[in-house]
Design a protein that fits this description.
With about 240 residues, the chain is mainly alpha-helical. It contains 9 helices and 3 strands.
Length: about 240
């Protein structure tokens, strides 16, 4: 009888141990997943002390656009932070020296997230929805008083620059290149585009180029750069002269 009792007690003890192990395993797995998710989230933000290829890409972009003059070494140091702050200030972003989602997007480096629509979807010509929205903002800031064809033409110039080896190779890079567009300098790039500007951006992305490949445009009445008048005129649409 005592043997039966001892065997039963031993079985109960073993069952308790197994239950505890199972509970620990079940509780630990979500924590491990949460830790991995947190690490992934941290990896999508750059700040002083960050290192790697993403930092190098940011430095390259800021250097091309005239905000950064240091070494492209993949090390997020004080000089990189100053350049990021200057870029953020110029483009109406929170000036914190940290490259988070909004700054990544402005740099043309949207951070992917499964449920977010801010940078992942695709548009015409392989461009993202974020590209379309940024191009629409540029069109709205630069040409909202022009005809629809004139607005598409402004979008086409941006895209022609993306394709040209003389300019940055992304829409954000072209638009935010230092002193390239008045709308960026005076803050109108941050205005909410209307449906007309968004449609014009889509048409330009789908291949409509009323300019025939132009890389420049200007309003001869308001232009202050004498250099722009030296460019070869191709076509005039509304108030803008388009040139190569």
């Amino acid at each position: 009888m005592n043997k039966v009792i001892r065997a039963g007690a031993l079985a109960l003890a073993l069952a308790a141990v197994l239950a505890a192990v199972t509970f620990f395993t079940v509780q630990t797995a979500p924590r491990a997943e949460q830790t991995a998710a947190a690490s992934q989230s941290v990896a999508s933000v750059l700040r002083q002390g960050s290192r790697g290829d993403t930092v190098r890409t940011v430095q390259n972009k800021l250097r091309r656009w005239g905000y950064y003059s240091g070494s492209v070494d993949g090390i997020y140091g004080p000089a990189t932070e100053r350049a990021v702050r200057a870029f953020q200030k110029k483009n109406g972003l929170t000036v914190d020296g940290i490259v988070g989602r909004a700054t990544f997007q402005a740099l043309g480096m949207p951070v992917s997230s499964g449920s977010s629509s801010s940078g992942g979807g695709s548009s015409g010509g392989g461009y993202t929805d974020a590209d379309t929205y940024l191009l629409a903002r540029c069109i709205y800031g630069e040409a909202r008083g022009e005809s629809y064809t004139g607005q598409v033409a402004v979008g086409a110039v941006v895209l022609n620059r993306v394709k040209s080896p003389e300019f940055p190779n992304t829409i954000a890079g072209v638009i935010y290149q230092k002193n390239a567009f008045t709308a960026v300098n005076d803050g109108q790039i941050n205005l909410e585009p209307n449906e007309t500007a968004i449609s014009a951006a889509r048409d330009a992305m789908n291949g409509w180029d009323p300019t025939g490949g132009c890389l420049y445009y200007y309003n001869p009445v308001t232009a202050t750069s004498q250099w722009i008048f030296s460019r070869e005129t191709v076509i005039t649409i509304g108030n803008h002269v388009f040139a190569i």
